[in-house]
């Protein structure tokens, strides 16, 4: 069985994952409208994940949340510079400077079954390398007008296969696509 690689992320209606300065206040505000107990499938998704791979900026954003939200899930932070992880974080967090194909191949050989890719640049790099199998994008009904886009430029068009759409009563729309 090959290693599956997925993205599970939220964007503004105009395709941004954060403001230019990295702020996600708009997402925090939107999450406040979500009924208690509803997580749009996130916990079920995370239960299927062996390794979460994120970029350094995403890691630094997550650190600002206070409590580490990923428990004992193995996390690899991509960065060309070494990272000193705070002592209060779980020991399952490591650093890598590998390219997406190198990291994918290593993790596949180690037996990882499902990789979760998070962070704009990291997602873009894994997409460009042809390593993403599935995209789950939850669209938040807000227009930011400017910010950090989920997708960057591509060398060629990337055709996706629609898997499902789900509209939540509180206004979110979740789209799932396979990446052939």
Structure in words:
With 180 residues, this protein is an alpha/beta fold. The chain has a single domain, classed as Dihydrofolate Reductase, subunit A, CATH 3.40.430.10. Helices cover 22% and strands 29% of the residues. The chain has 5 helices and 10 strands. The strands form 2 sheets. It has an 8-stranded mixed β-sheet with strand order 5-4-3-6-1-7-10-9. The protein has a two-stranded antiparallel ribbon with strand order 2-8.
Assigned CATH superfamily: Dihydrofolate Reductase, subunit A
Strand content: 25-35%
Order of strands, widest sheet: 5-4-3-6-1-7-10-9
Put simply, the count of helices is: 5
Note the run of SSEs as H and E: EEHHEHEEHEHEEEE
Topology-level CATH name: Dihydrofolate Reductase, subunit A
- The best one-word shape is globular
CATH secondary-structure class: Alpha Beta
Average pLDDT number: 95
Derived structural class: alpha/beta
Distance between the termini: 17 Å
Taking the sheet with the most strands, its summary is: 8 strands, mixed
| CATH-level-2 architecture | 3-Layer(aba) Sandwich
Note the quaternary state here.
single chain
* Radius of gyration over C-alpha positions, nearest whole angstrom: 16 Å
Low-confidence stretches: none
Helix content: 10-25%
Q: How many β-strand runs? A: 10
Q: How many structurally independent domains?
A: 1
Task: Give the secondary structure arrangement, pairings included.
Blueprint lengths: L3 E9 L3 E3 L6 H7 L10 H6 L3 E5 H8 L10 E5 L14 E4 L3 H10 L4 E5 L1 H9 L5 E7 L7 E2 L11 E7 L5 E6 L2
Parallel strand pairs: 1-6, 1-7, 3-4, 3-6, 4-5
Antiparallel strand pairs: 2-8, 7-10, 9-10
């Amino acid at each position: 069985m090959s290693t599956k690689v997925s993205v599970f992320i939220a964007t503004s209606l105009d395709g941004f994952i954060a403001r230019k300065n990295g702020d996600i206040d708009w997402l925090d505000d939107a999450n406040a409208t979500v009924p208690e107990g509803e997580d749009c499938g996130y916990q079920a998704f995370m239960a299927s994940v062996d390794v979460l791979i994120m970029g350094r900026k995403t890691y630094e954003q997550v650190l600002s949340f206070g409590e580490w939200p990923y428990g004992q899930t193995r996390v690899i932070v991509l960065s060309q510079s070494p990272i000193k992880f705070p002592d209060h974080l779980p020991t399952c967090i490591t650093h890598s400077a590998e390219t997406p194909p190198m990291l994918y191949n290593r993790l596949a050989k180690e037996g990882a079954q499902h990789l979760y890719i998070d962070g704009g640049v990291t997602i873009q790099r894994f997409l460009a390398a042809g390593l993403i199998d599935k995209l789950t994008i939850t669209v938040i009904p807000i227009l930011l007008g400017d910010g950090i886009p989920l997708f960057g430029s591509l060398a060629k068009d990337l055709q996706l296969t629609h898997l499902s759409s789900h509209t939540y009563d509180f206004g979110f729309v979740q789209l799932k696509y396979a990446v052939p």
